[in-house]
Amino acid sequence: MRLALLGLYHETNTFSPVRADRAMFRNGGVWRGDEIVEAYAMSSSTNGGFLVGAAEQGAEVVPLMFAFVTPTGRIAADAFDWLVDEMIGLLRDQGPWDGVLLNLHGAAVAENHADADAEIATRVRAVVGPGVPVGTVLDLHANVSQRLIDALTITLVYQTNPHVDAKQQAIRCTELVVRTIRGELQPRQAMVALPLVCNIACQDTSEEPMVGLLAKAREIAGRPGILSANVVEGFPYADVPQVGMSCVVIHDGDADQAKRAADELAGSIWAQRDALQTTGMTVDEALDIAVADRHGPVVLLDAGDNIGGGSPGDSTVILEAAVRRGQRSLVQTICDPKSAQHCIEAGVNSTVSLAVGAWQSHSAGQPVQITGRVRAVSDGKFEEPNPTHGGFRFFDMGPTAVVDTTAGHTLVISSIPVMGTSLQQLLSVGVTPSSYRIVVGKGVNSPRAGYAPIATRMLVVDTEGVSAMGLDRFDYRHRRKPLYPFESTGFAPMPFD
């Protein structure tokens, strides 16, 4: 039994002007053949789960090609065509296949394809034909379309946020694909797209209302004949027709039962539509709470500069406020290649004076003038062996410098934006985050798994930026209408008898 493994995994913030172009992918964003095994076999990622699942099922998995870069704006048209053409060519030339394991995010947007994931899946299906099972595991932030579902045999979705179940879902997906190949299962999928956008700050799966919705999905999944039931939170920073929440249910052999179950789950989600909206606290409100906390550290989640949501990672909004208020004992990362290089050239123990951050056209805040001592320099590479958001293990911040400023702040200045999902990002350069009163996390949900062990509390801060909490700040031109909470609308999924 031969299974092909391939994919293009990208979360696209269409409000960011930064394109994921050929150069970005060529600079460490493409793996071919055994490179996939080397990079992901020991990780808790989707690819890691596919490899483990295939071994457990006694299937031969053939890694073809995988592409991934940190979330940005749209994938450049020529980059998308180059990557997908090569992947599809490998799939065609190295077949025939018994099944396909396809690693997609679900919120990818290319300049030439608004529903990039569906385009990839459709092209895979055209190569292997209608009878070959194709399975995928989508990110919980997927914006799912019917076209995508129609091209797939098995669609599972992360059901944790932070995403710490990628490996487990991929193992399960592989099992279902193999059992389908063996004739033990006849998967029938149903998807319901809700006219609903969920605020990013309401998507933590350890908090209500997501706790209750996921419990409902598990209850449905436990019924006879149901193979899987998935809540999909969606990614609100994509101006595409398919933006929004959805649910996907798979039944063994009965499409009507799958649809009825999906409608029931959709009804439960719709009933919580108001609870899935929120407003955040200001920077000053968050700093007031942090100052009042006598223990710390308090982690301030910088929503508007969420690197995992496509922001640049160079916002100075919280840093500016801390300087203005005289608040000391703060540590944060900031992506600023020129400042990092300046500090590296100055050398360890040198005193530097420079303006850091907010160097891009879509950055939040203004460059902040700092003076400080260069504590350390690094190549920026670090490893996180434990499951964190997305299950990734190897990270690269590029040339990096640590500066202790006269204002009492420690800045980890990197050259490449990296999601703040792991304490190793700071520990690897000699910074102990637990020794600070305030830690700034560049994200909303993605830092929670990594930073929870040291935090006395985590506060979501409604900062400006291309991933700001308040969706009314964005100019949507392609989303469907009506869509709650932008417009009032009704929704009546089929009742479950």
Automatic annotation (TrEMBL):
Task: Identify the residues that the record assigns to the Microcystin LR degradation protein MlrC C-terminal domain, covering every copy.
Answer: 300-478
The source's superkingdom equals Bacteria
Q: Which residues form the Microcystin LR degradation protein MlrC N-terminal domain?
A: 2-290
The name under which this protein is listed is M81 family metallopeptidase
User: What's the source species for this entry?
Assistant: Kribbella hippodromi
Organism classification: Bacteria, Bacillati, Actinomycetota, Actinomycetes, Propionibacteriales
